[in-house]
Amino acid sequence: MNFLRNSIITGVFVVLSVFSFAQSKDFKAVQSLEIFHSLLRELSLFYVDSIEVEKLVTTGIGSMLESLDPYTAYIPEEIAGDFDIMLTGQYGGMGALIKKAPGGVVISEPYKGFPADKAGLVAGDKILEIDGDATADMDLPTASKRLKGAVGTTITLKVEKLRGNDTLTLTLTRDRIRIADVTYAGLLADSIGYIRLSSFTKDGSRDFKNAFMALQKTGALKKLVIDLRSNSGGSLDEAVNIVGLFVPRNTEVVASRGRIKQFDRVYKTKELPLDTEIPIAVLVNNLSASAAEIVAGSLQDLDRAVIIGSRTFGKGLVQTVRDLGYNAQLKITTAKYYIPSGRCIQAIDYSHRNADGSVGQIPDSLIRPFKTKNGRTVYDGGGITPDILSEPQSYAKITYDIAARDMLHDFSVRYFAGRPTIAAPEDFRLTDEEYNDFVQYAAGKPFDDRTTTELLLAQLEAAIKAEHLYDTAKAELDTLHAKISHDKRSKLLLFRPELQQLLENEICARYYYDEGRFRSMLRHDNQAEAAVNLLNDPEAYKRELGIKN
Question: Which residue ranges make up each domain of the chain?
Fold first, then answer.
């Protein structure tokens, strides 16, 4: 009897404890919300200057979510349209990139086949007015918003043409603008196809499938290079569909697992594949992330492709969009994804922060080995490590600075203005005279012409002075300065090989759109060359995948 009584008392205590704990959590949440509401009321009533409460709340929400991870984000009504564009890759507009310039806004790059392109607008054309309103004092976000609008509506532009400097008034009808995820597809060699995928937006797998089938129709396709470099990801479903083109139907590609069971899901291929035998090499780099890593990682785990390049970004987190009411949304991290070997490639541990709030990579001690289908060893916790490491071409500091200041683009527009045609991207080369024109142009522009060596020497000199050794080392420092210091023109000639490559890529884009840029880039692409060399060596390809003869 005492045993039964004690058991009942214990059970009641446990139930009350659980209930009390739940109440405690709910109470603390309500308490925090009431404090937050009171704080806002006090600020709005008594702060020394007038404040915008809505802006303050948005700032507070942003800071709160930043403490979790970079991918959980608040989407207020005013930017919901931009978020939809990011997800779908489409919007209503004229189809051109623009940038601010003195006296208005300038077409930076028209998209092939869309209203701006069909109306004859080219890079360098200046938009003076939008629907009668001058753009001289219009900021770029305002101009961009004015150019976008509902599909089928019209927009009137007053334009100063790059070629001829004529001023025209054009009326364009806005269209649905969707930039295909496949930015270029073609043949790298006689039998090696190449598809560059820039993102994973809605219908991106359809773009990829169409590109692959077009290559098949040439009759030449025997091997394939998939380029996922600098692809930051997007739709997980589109990634699964692309993998499904090359593996049997009902193959598991990825699984998501979260704290809430409703977010646990296994993603398998649904359609019959197009080709389960074609040898595949996948190119990746440190900016390949999320859905791009799912494609690369699952093809690696399934031993369906050889991965070439540098280690990927390491984003193994899944986001879900939740409605908050008032047309606001929350993009929230709800799960982690796991590719076929069972590994998660998330590289940064946001759940365990340092004392200063910073985060770090998952330590090597916690990284675990997994096995691919053929028994090769792969690892979790740090992105996708390529089967063949191949670092991209590196550039001098001066080259990065010139590119960042848009000088390559601006010179390409000047070049385009004076020449109606150029050779095909695969054959185009700047002459000595043309490169010297660029040197003269660039030398007159402000840019940081200090090399990395010069910066390091300046740091060394500062350290020597701080330690009172300058008088002793002055002669050697002067000699070093004399050997490594050059004027702008000399440096532009010194780094001509890499600057000319990038300049030719940009010029090709003016005449052949984005496709021309990539066709030109592939001429100097050491990672693409590594993929071609591997695919042309069947025995090496089999060894990389652990295939035994």
Answer: 31-67, 90-178, 182-392, 397-524
**Residues carrying an active site annotation:** 290, 301, 315
**Of 510, 481, 353, 351, which is closest to residue 421 (Cα–Cα)?**
510
Fold agreement between 90-178 and 182-392:
no
> C-alpha angle with apex 286: 285 to 290, nearest 5 degrees?
95
- Under DSSP, is residue 157 helix (H, G, I), strand (E, B) or coil? strand
Q: Which residue has the tokens 């051109």?
A: 96
CA dihedral 405, 409, 410, 413 (to 10 degrees): 180
Query: In a 10 Å sphere around its CB, with 0-12 CB exposed, 13-18 middle and 19+ buried, how is residue 45 labelled?
Result: exposed
- How would DSSP label each residue in 208-272? HHHHHHHHHHTS---EEEEE-TT---B-HHHHHHHHTTTS-TT-EEEEEE-SSGGG-EEEE--S-
Strand 133-134, strand 126-130: pairing: antiparallel
Q: Cα–Cα distance between 100 and 239 in angstroms, integer?
A: 36
Query: CA-to-CA distance for 460 and 476, rounded, in angstroms?
Result: 12
Of 285, 296, 183, 293, whose CA–CA distance to 233 is shortest? Answer: 293
Fold category of 90-178 in CATH? Pdz3 Domain (2.30.42)
Q: What is the tens place of the pLDDT at every residue in 174-208?
A: 999 888 999 999 999 889 999 999 999 989 999 99
Which of 188, 285, 245 is CA-nearest to residue 522? Answer: 188
Judging by beta carbons within 10 Å of its beta carbon (0-12, 13-18, 19+), is residue 76 exposed, middle or buried?
Answer: middle
**HEC per residue, 261-290:** HHHCEEEECCCCCCCCCCCEEEEECCCCCC
Q: How do residues 361-405 score in pLDDT, each as one tens digit?
A: 777 777 899 999 999 999 988 899 999 999 998 999 999 999 999
**Rg (Cα) of the chain, in Å, rounded?**
29
Q: Is-contact 336 257, C-beta < 8 A? A: yes
In angstroms, the Cα distances linking 269 to 62, 249, 250, 349 are 37, 5, 5, 30
CATH topology of domain 182-392: 2-enoyl-CoA Hydratase; Chain A, domain 1 (3.90.226)
Residue type (1 letter), 506: E
pTM score: 0.85
Instruction: Give the type of residue at 439.
Output: V
Rounded Cα distance, 95 and 177, in Å:
6
Residue-wise pLDDT for 19-49, tens only, equals 444 556 677 888 888 998 898 999 989 999 9
